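Suppose you are handed only these lines of text.
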Amino acid sequence: MELLDGQLVSNIIKEGLKLQVGQLTVEGKKVPHLAAVLVGNNGASETYVGAKVKTCSEIGFRSTLLRLDADTSENRLLNIIDDLNNDVDIDGILVQLPLPKHISDEKVINAILPSKDVDGFHPINVGKMVQGLPAFISATPHGILLLLEHYKINTKGKHAVVVGRSNIVGRPMSVLLSSNTPTGNCTVTLCHSHTPNLSELCRQADIIVAALGKPEFVTADMVKEGAVIIDVGITRVPDSSKKSGFALKGDVKFDEVAPRCSYITPVPRGVGPMTIAALMKNTFMACEERSGGSLI
Ligand code: NDP
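From them, the structure of the protein bound to NDP can be written out as follows.
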Protein backbone atom coordinates (compact mmCIF):
# COMPACT_ATOMS: atom_id res chain seq x y z
CA MET A 1 0.00 0.00 0.00
CA GLU A 2 1.26 3.47 -0.90
CA LEU A 3 -0.04 6.62 0.76
CA LEU A 4 -1.30 9.33 -1.62
CA ASP A 5 0.33 12.17 0.26
CA GLY A 6 -1.77 15.24 -0.51
CA GLN A 7 0.32 17.44 1.73
CA LEU A 8 3.50 16.56 -0.16
CA VAL A 9 1.98 16.98 -3.62
CA SER A 10 0.25 20.23 -2.68
CA ASN A 11 3.59 21.58 -1.42
CA ILE A 12 5.17 20.75 -4.78
CA ILE A 13 2.33 22.52 -6.64
CA LYS A 14 2.54 25.54 -4.32
CA GLU A 15 6.33 25.75 -4.80
CA GLY A 16 5.78 25.78 -8.58
CA LEU A 17 3.22 28.56 -8.28
CA LYS A 18 5.52 30.54 -5.98
CA LEU A 19 8.24 30.45 -8.64
CA GLN A 20 5.78 31.59 -11.29
CA VAL A 21 4.57 34.46 -9.08
CA GLY A 22 8.21 35.42 -8.45
CA GLN A 23 8.69 35.60 -12.22
CA LEU A 24 5.60 37.81 -12.62
CA THR A 25 6.98 40.16 -9.96
CA VAL A 26 10.39 40.33 -11.68
CA GLU A 27 8.62 41.21 -14.92
CA GLY A 28 6.59 43.91 -13.14
CA LYS A 29 3.33 42.11 -13.89
CA LYS A 30 0.23 41.76 -11.75
CA VAL A 31 0.21 38.94 -9.19
CA PRO A 32 -2.95 36.88 -8.61
CA HIS A 33 -5.46 38.36 -6.17
CA LEU A 34 -8.09 36.16 -4.51
CA ALA A 35 -11.13 37.55 -2.70
CA ALA A 36 -12.64 35.22 -0.09
CA VAL A 37 -16.04 35.88 1.43
CA LEU A 38 -16.99 34.31 4.75
CA VAL A 39 -20.52 34.77 6.07
CA GLY A 40 -21.07 33.94 9.75
CA ASN A 41 -18.69 32.12 12.05
CA ASN A 42 -18.96 28.40 11.35
CA GLY A 43 -15.82 26.84 12.91
CA ALA A 44 -14.95 24.54 10.00
CA SER A 45 -15.53 27.33 7.43
CA GLU A 46 -13.25 29.66 9.45
CA THR A 47 -10.53 26.98 9.31
CA TYR A 48 -10.90 26.39 5.56
CA VAL A 49 -10.94 30.09 4.64
CA GLY A 50 -8.03 30.74 7.01
CA ALA A 51 -5.99 28.01 5.30
CA LYS A 52 -6.77 29.43 1.84
CA VAL A 53 -5.77 32.98 2.81
CA LYS A 54 -2.58 31.71 4.51
CA THR A 55 -1.65 29.73 1.39
CA CYS A 56 -2.11 32.85 -0.76
CA SER A 57 0.39 34.70 1.38
CA GLU A 58 2.87 31.76 1.37
CA ILE A 59 3.01 31.65 -2.41
CA GLY A 60 2.95 35.40 -3.03
CA PHE A 61 -0.68 35.86 -4.11
CA ARG A 62 -2.63 38.80 -2.76
CA SER A 63 -5.81 38.02 -0.87
CA THR A 64 -8.72 39.96 0.56
CA LEU A 65 -10.87 38.34 3.22
CA LEU A 66 -14.35 39.81 3.62
CA ARG A 67 -16.00 38.72 6.86
CA LEU A 68 -19.72 39.28 7.02
CA ASP A 69 -22.13 38.79 9.93
CA ALA A 70 -24.33 35.70 9.92
CA ASP A 71 -27.41 37.92 9.53
CA THR A 72 -26.09 39.64 6.37
CA SER A 73 -28.95 39.81 3.87
CA GLU A 74 -28.84 37.97 0.56
CA ASN A 75 -29.09 41.29 -1.29
CA ARG A 76 -26.12 42.75 0.53
CA LEU A 77 -24.04 39.67 -0.30
CA LEU A 78 -25.09 39.86 -3.96
CA ASN A 79 -24.10 43.55 -4.03
CA ILE A 80 -20.70 42.69 -2.57
CA ILE A 81 -20.18 40.02 -5.23
CA ASP A 82 -21.15 42.56 -7.88
CA ASP A 83 -18.49 44.95 -6.54
CA LEU A 84 -15.89 42.15 -6.61
CA ASN A 85 -16.92 41.22 -10.17
CA ASN A 86 -16.32 44.83 -11.22
CA ASP A 87 -13.06 45.27 -9.31
CA VAL A 88 -10.33 44.97 -11.94
CA ASP A 89 -7.77 44.11 -9.29
CA ILE A 90 -9.59 40.92 -8.18
CA ASP A 91 -8.87 37.79 -10.23
CA GLY A 92 -10.76 35.14 -8.29
CA ILE A 93 -13.76 35.14 -5.96
CA LEU A 94 -14.69 32.41 -3.54
CA VAL A 95 -17.69 32.40 -1.24
CA GLN A 96 -17.21 29.82 1.48
CA LEU A 97 -20.08 27.35 1.69
CA PRO A 98 -22.32 26.52 3.47
CA LEU A 99 -24.07 29.88 3.65
CA PRO A 100 -26.64 30.75 6.35
CA LYS A 101 -30.08 29.25 5.57
CA HIS A 102 -31.66 32.59 4.53
CA ILE A 103 -29.20 32.97 1.64
CA SER A 104 -29.58 30.91 -1.55
CA ASP A 105 -26.30 29.14 -2.49
CA GLU A 106 -27.56 28.97 -6.06
CA LYS A 107 -28.20 32.73 -6.40
CA VAL A 108 -24.81 33.51 -4.92
CA ILE A 109 -22.91 31.05 -7.13
CA ASN A 110 -24.73 32.31 -10.22
CA ALA A 111 -23.83 35.91 -9.33
CA ILE A 112 -20.08 35.31 -9.54
CA LEU A 113 -18.56 36.20 -12.90
CA PRO A 114 -17.64 32.84 -14.54
CA SER A 115 -14.17 34.22 -15.36
CA LYS A 116 -13.59 34.87 -11.61
CA ASP A 117 -15.31 31.66 -10.40
CA VAL A 118 -12.15 29.91 -9.19
CA ASP A 119 -14.21 27.40 -7.19
CA GLY A 120 -15.66 26.20 -10.50
CA PHE A 121 -19.24 26.09 -9.19
CA HIS A 122 -20.90 28.42 -11.74
CA PRO A 123 -23.17 26.59 -14.24
CA ILE A 124 -21.11 28.00 -17.13
CA ASN A 125 -17.95 26.41 -15.77
CA VAL A 126 -19.76 23.18 -14.89
CA GLY A 127 -21.26 23.04 -18.41
CA LYS A 128 -17.88 23.60 -20.04
CA MET A 129 -16.30 20.96 -17.82
CA VAL A 130 -18.99 18.44 -18.81
CA GLN A 131 -18.30 19.19 -22.49
CA GLY A 132 -14.55 18.80 -21.99
CA LEU A 133 -13.91 22.49 -22.75
CA PRO A 134 -11.36 24.57 -20.82
CA ALA A 135 -13.02 25.66 -17.57
CA PHE A 136 -12.41 26.22 -13.89
CA ILE A 137 -12.86 22.76 -12.41
CA SER A 138 -14.30 22.51 -8.93
CA ALA A 139 -11.30 22.59 -6.60
CA THR A 140 -11.77 19.23 -4.82
CA PRO A 141 -12.21 17.05 -7.94
CA HIS A 142 -9.46 19.08 -9.63
CA GLY A 143 -7.15 18.41 -6.67
CA ILE A 144 -7.94 14.68 -6.82
CA LEU A 145 -7.03 14.60 -10.53
CA LEU A 146 -3.72 16.34 -9.75
CA LEU A 147 -3.03 13.70 -7.10
CA LEU A 148 -3.81 10.82 -9.49
CA GLU A 149 -1.57 12.48 -12.08
CA HIS A 150 1.32 12.93 -9.66
CA TYR A 151 1.29 9.27 -8.62
CA LYS A 152 0.80 8.17 -12.26
CA ILE A 153 -2.24 6.13 -11.34
CA ASN A 154 -3.67 4.42 -14.39
CA THR A 155 -7.37 5.20 -14.64
CA LYS A 156 -7.96 4.05 -18.22
CA GLY A 157 -10.53 1.27 -18.45
CA LYS A 158 -10.93 1.07 -14.67
CA HIS A 159 -14.22 0.87 -12.83
CA ALA A 160 -14.58 3.87 -10.53
CA VAL A 161 -17.30 4.04 -7.90
CA VAL A 162 -18.02 7.55 -6.65
CA VAL A 163 -20.10 7.65 -3.46
CA GLY A 164 -21.91 10.99 -3.17
CA ARG A 165 -23.43 13.14 -5.93
CA SER A 166 -23.03 16.70 -4.64
CA ASN A 167 -22.51 19.47 -7.18
CA ILE A 168 -19.14 20.36 -5.67
CA VAL A 169 -17.55 16.92 -5.28
CA GLY A 170 -19.25 13.69 -6.34
CA ARG A 171 -21.01 14.71 -9.55
CA PRO A 172 -18.10 16.63 -11.14
CA MET A 173 -15.76 13.83 -10.02
CA SER A 174 -17.90 11.27 -11.85
CA VAL A 175 -17.84 13.39 -15.03
CA LEU A 176 -14.09 13.95 -14.89
CA LEU A 177 -13.25 10.29 -14.26
CA SER A 178 -15.41 9.30 -17.23
CA SER A 179 -13.95 11.97 -19.56
CA ASN A 180 -11.57 11.13 -22.37
CA THR A 181 -8.46 12.50 -20.63
CA PRO A 182 -5.25 11.02 -19.16
CA THR A 183 -6.84 10.99 -15.67
CA GLY A 184 -10.20 9.77 -16.98
CA ASN A 185 -11.49 7.02 -19.26
CA CYS A 186 -12.97 5.15 -16.33
CA THR A 187 -16.34 3.47 -16.36
CA VAL A 188 -18.08 5.28 -13.54
CA THR A 189 -20.83 4.25 -11.15
CA LEU A 190 -22.21 7.25 -9.25
CA CYS A 191 -23.85 6.27 -5.97
CA HIS A 192 -26.06 8.18 -3.53
CA SER A 193 -28.35 7.59 -0.61
CA HIS A 194 -30.90 5.70 -2.74
CA THR A 195 -28.37 3.28 -4.24
CA PRO A 196 -29.16 -0.33 -3.33
CA ASN A 197 -26.30 -2.82 -2.92
CA LEU A 198 -23.72 -0.11 -2.33
CA SER A 199 -21.27 -2.52 -0.68
CA GLU A 200 -21.46 -4.88 -3.62
CA LEU A 201 -20.82 -2.04 -6.10
CA CYS A 202 -17.86 -0.82 -4.06
CA ARG A 203 -16.40 -4.34 -4.01
CA GLN A 204 -16.35 -4.26 -7.84
CA ALA A 205 -14.45 -0.96 -7.93
CA ASP A 206 -10.84 -0.46 -8.98
CA ILE A 207 -11.12 3.10 -7.69
CA ILE A 208 -13.43 4.33 -4.91
CA VAL A 209 -14.01 8.03 -4.28
CA ALA A 210 -15.81 8.34 -0.94
CA ALA A 211 -17.53 11.73 -0.68
CA LEU A 212 -20.60 11.28 1.46
CA GLY A 213 -19.66 12.88 4.76
CA LYS A 214 -20.28 9.79 6.92
CA PRO A 215 -17.27 9.03 9.10
CA GLU A 216 -15.64 5.62 8.51
CA PHE A 217 -18.50 4.51 6.23
CA VAL A 218 -16.28 2.51 3.85
CA THR A 219 -15.05 -0.62 5.62
CA ALA A 220 -12.59 -3.34 4.57
CA ASP A 221 -15.34 -5.75 3.46
CA MET A 222 -16.47 -3.14 0.86
CA VAL A 223 -13.04 -2.90 -0.79
CA LYS A 224 -11.48 -5.12 -3.45
CA GLU A 225 -7.86 -6.16 -2.88
CA GLY A 226 -5.57 -3.66 -4.66
CA ALA A 227 -8.16 -0.90 -5.09
CA VAL A 228 -7.29 2.82 -5.11
CA ILE A 229 -9.12 4.70 -2.34
CA ILE A 230 -9.73 8.44 -2.39
CA ASP A 231 -11.25 9.64 0.87
CA VAL A 232 -12.83 13.08 0.49
CA GLY A 233 -14.81 13.11 3.73
CA ILE A 234 -13.87 15.41 6.58
CA THR A 235 -16.10 15.27 9.64
CA ARG A 236 -15.35 16.72 13.04
CA VAL A 237 -16.12 14.08 15.68
CA PRO A 238 -15.93 14.86 19.41
CA ASP A 239 -12.62 13.69 20.93
CA SER A 240 -11.78 14.80 24.45
CA SER A 241 -8.13 13.70 24.03
CA LYS A 242 -7.61 16.53 21.49
CA LYS A 243 -6.95 20.12 22.49
CA SER A 244 -9.54 21.27 19.96
CA GLY A 245 -12.11 18.85 21.42
CA PHE A 246 -12.59 17.08 18.08
CA ALA A 247 -10.81 14.75 15.68
CA LEU A 248 -11.09 14.82 11.88
CA LYS A 249 -12.50 11.63 10.40
CA GLY A 250 -12.67 10.60 6.77
CA ASP A 251 -15.38 8.55 5.11
CA VAL A 252 -13.09 5.50 5.05
CA LYS A 253 -12.12 3.29 8.00
CA PHE A 254 -8.47 3.88 7.26
CA ASP A 255 -6.82 1.32 9.58
CA GLU A 256 -8.70 -1.66 8.23
CA VAL A 257 -9.00 -0.53 4.59
CA ALA A 258 -5.38 0.59 4.06
CA PRO A 259 -3.85 -2.93 4.14
CA ARG A 260 -6.20 -4.06 1.34
CA CYS A 261 -5.53 -1.31 -1.19
CA SER A 262 -2.78 -0.26 -3.58
CA TYR A 263 -3.11 3.47 -2.85
CA ILE A 264 -5.06 5.44 -0.26
CA THR A 265 -5.40 9.07 0.81
CA PRO A 266 -5.13 9.78 4.54
CA VAL A 267 -7.37 12.21 6.45
CA PRO A 268 -6.04 14.78 7.16
CA ARG A 269 -3.16 15.42 4.69
CA GLY A 270 -4.92 13.86 1.72
CA VAL A 271 -7.61 15.51 -0.39
CA GLY A 272 -7.87 18.62 1.85
CA PRO A 273 -4.48 20.18 0.95
CA MET A 274 -5.01 19.19 -2.71
CA THR A 275 -8.26 21.17 -2.75
CA ILE A 276 -6.35 24.28 -1.68
CA ALA A 277 -3.57 23.64 -4.21
CA ALA A 278 -6.17 23.30 -6.99
CA LEU A 279 -7.87 26.52 -5.89
CA MET A 280 -4.51 28.31 -6.11
CA LYS A 281 -3.91 26.88 -9.59
CA ASN A 282 -7.37 28.09 -10.66
CA THR A 283 -6.64 31.56 -9.24
CA PHE A 284 -3.32 31.71 -11.09
CA MET A 285 -5.12 30.68 -14.28
CA ALA A 286 -7.78 33.38 -13.71
CA CYS A 287 -5.06 36.01 -13.37
CA GLU A 288 -3.28 34.78 -16.50
CA GLU A 289 -6.55 34.81 -18.38
CA ARG A 290 -7.34 38.36 -17.29
CA SER A 291 -3.86 39.41 -18.35
CA GLY A 292 -4.52 38.23 -21.89
CA GLY A 293 -4.32 34.43 -21.80
CA SER A 294 -6.86 32.31 -23.59
CA LEU A 295 -7.50 29.29 -21.41
CA ILE A 296 -11.08 29.99 -20.36
P1 NDP B 1 -23.12 16.61 0.60
O1 NDP B 1 -23.76 16.44 1.92
O2 NDP B 1 -23.49 17.78 -0.25
O3 NDP B 1 -23.40 15.29 -0.27
C1 NDP B 1 -23.30 14.02 0.28
C2 NDP B 1 -23.66 13.00 -0.76
O4 NDP B 1 -23.49 11.72 -0.18
C3 NDP B 1 -25.11 13.09 -1.26
O5 NDP B 1 -25.17 12.91 -2.64
C4 NDP B 1 -25.80 11.95 -0.54
O6 NDP B 1 -26.83 11.34 -1.28
C5 NDP B 1 -24.65 10.95 -0.40
N1 NDP B 1 -24.88 10.06 0.74
C6 NDP B 1 -25.15 10.39 2.02
N2 NDP B 1 -25.31 9.28 2.77
C7 NDP B 1 -25.14 8.24 1.94
C8 NDP B 1 -25.17 6.83 2.12
N3 NDP B 1 -25.43 6.27 3.31
N4 NDP B 1 -24.94 6.05 1.05
C9 NDP B 1 -24.68 6.60 -0.17
N5 NDP B 1 -24.61 7.92 -0.39
C10 NDP B 1 -24.86 8.72 0.64
O7 NDP B 1 -21.57 16.53 0.87
P2 NDP B 1 -20.29 17.13 0.07
O8 NDP B 1 -20.17 16.47 -1.25
O9 NDP B 1 -20.29 18.60 0.15
O10 NDP B 1 -19.13 16.61 1.03
C11 NDP B 1 -18.93 15.24 1.29
C12 NDP B 1 -17.81 15.11 2.30
O11 NDP B 1 -16.62 15.63 1.76
C13 NDP B 1 -18.04 15.89 3.61
O12 NDP B 1 -17.46 15.17 4.68
C14 NDP B 1 -17.28 17.18 3.39
O13 NDP B 1 -16.86 17.77 4.60
C15 NDP B 1 -16.10 16.65 2.60
N6 NDP B 1 -15.45 17.66 1.76
C16 NDP B 1 -14.10 17.68 1.79
C17 NDP B 1 -13.40 18.54 1.01
C18 NDP B 1 -11.92 18.51 1.05
O14 NDP B 1 -11.29 19.47 0.64
N7 NDP B 1 -11.31 17.42 1.50
C19 NDP B 1 -14.09 19.52 0.14
C20 NDP B 1 -15.53 19.35 0.12
C21 NDP B 1 -16.17 18.45 0.91
P3 NDP B 1 -28.21 12.10 -1.69
O15 NDP B 1 -27.83 13.01 -2.82
O16 NDP B 1 -29.11 11.01 -2.09
O17 NDP B 1 -28.65 12.86 -0.47
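What can we learn from it? The mean pLDDT is 96. The chain has two domains: 28-113, 139-272.
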